[in-house]
Every structure is written in C-alpha cells, then in structure tokens.
C-alpha cells in the first residue's frame, strides 16, 4: 500500500523525488538541504530516510529512474520485428524525447554526478554503459547486414549521438521553435545519414 501524508494520493517516494528534482534544478544539489526537500514534499525527515538512505540516494534515483525508462524503451525498440534502420531511428529519436521530457533530471545529473560516492558513481556508469551497449548493438547489427556503413566504428557513432543528447539541457527550451519530437527527428535523421553506406 502506498503511503501518503496528504490528500493528493501521490506516494511519498514520488513526492520526495519531485521535490528534490525541482530543488536540485533550481538551487544545485550541494546548496539544497534535506530539510528543504522534506518541507517541499510535505513529509518528515523520517519519511525521507525510510525510502532513501540519504540525499545522495535521491540524486542517484533522479537519474536512474530516467535511465530505467529509457532502457525499457530501447529494449522494446531493439526487440521489435522491424527493419534495423527503423529500429535504430526509433531508438535514437526516443532517447532525445525522453531526455527532453526529463530535462531537469538530465541537467542535475551531469552537473552533480561528481557528488556521488565512488560506489554509486560506478553503479550509475554501469547502468548507462548497459544502455549504450544495447544501442551500439543495433548499429553493429546494421553494419554487419550492410545496411549501415562500417567506415566509422560503432563506438564512435554512439558517442556522436549521445554527445548531442547529453547537451540538450544546455540549449533546449520548451518555448523554443522546435518540439521535442522535431528535435528528436532531426537528430535521428542526422545519425542515419552518417551511417549511410
């Protein structure tokens, strides 16, 4: 049973994450106190420590939840019964859209990753590596089939695409001229053009 402390019906862990994400984005991780997070979430410190062992655990979860969503979606695209070009384009566009939809989370993580302990940092890097390896496997599948050029190593292609994704938080604005889907389409098309044989 999900526990709540107000009439919103939102479970406490989600409220804590929402409050932490907003405060980390506005003030920075290092300038946000546990007290500010629990006040914003409308819960006690005891509730925070029941669900998250520390403020650092909240930071790790801010990023991990987005990565879990993206991994599930990538796995679905990779396993779909569709031509490799379509699967790669769908996967490439999806990571852009889901990053834009969670822009605060991505910005917080790249600004604050150095605050994680070596062990937590290693866990997050391992999760991210698993995602990149699955994405790279799609490129390699297309290269083996002759659908994509093998002139550029798959690792470099992955770095090229995710370099663009990781910088979205520095320039994308929701009130800008392009929708998330338009940005995603352009970046996915650039990737596929770079892979043309």
From TrEMBL:
Keywords: DNA-binding, Repressor, Transcription, Transcription regulation. It comes from the Bacteria. InterPro entries: DNA-bd_HTH_TetR-type_CS, Homeodomain-like_sf, HTH-type_TetR-like_transc_reg, HTH_TetR, KstR2_TetR_C, Tet_transcr_reg_TetR-rel_C_sf. Residues 10-70 form the HTH tetR-type domain. Pfam families: TetR_C_24, TetR_N. Residues 33-52 bind DNA. SUPFAM superfamilies: Homeodomain-like (SSF46689), Tetracyclin repressor-like, C-terminal domain (SSF48498). The keyword Repressor applies. This is TetR/AcrR family transcriptional regulator. It comes from Streptomyces flavochromogenes. The lineage of its organism: Bacteria, Bacillati, Actinomycetota, Actinomycetes, Kitasatosporales.
């Amino acid at each position: 049973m999900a526990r709540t402390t107000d009439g919103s019906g939102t479970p406490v862990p989600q409220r804590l994450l929402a409050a932490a994400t907003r405060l980390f984005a506005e003030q920075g991780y290092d300038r946000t106190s546990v007290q500010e997070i629990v006040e914003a979430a409308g819960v006690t410190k005891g509730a925070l420590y029941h669900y998250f062992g520390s403020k650092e655990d909240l930071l790790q979860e801010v990023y991990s939840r987005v990565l879990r969503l993206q991994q599930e979606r990538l796995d679905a695209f990779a396993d779909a019964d569709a031509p490799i070009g379509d699967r790669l384009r769908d996967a490439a566009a999806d990571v852009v859209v889901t990053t834009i939809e969670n822009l605060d989370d991505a910005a917080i993580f790249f600004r604050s990753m150095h605050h994680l302990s070596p062990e937590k940092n290693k866990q997050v890097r391992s999760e991210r590596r698993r995602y990149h390896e699955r994405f790279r496997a799609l490129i390699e599948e297309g290269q083996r089939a002759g659908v994509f050029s093998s002139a550029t190593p798959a690792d470099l292609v992955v770095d090229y695409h995710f370099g663009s994704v990781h910088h979205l938080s520095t320039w994308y604005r929701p009130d800008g001229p392009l929708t998330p889907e338009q940005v995603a389409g352009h970046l996915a098309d650039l990737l596929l053009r770079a892979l043309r044989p």
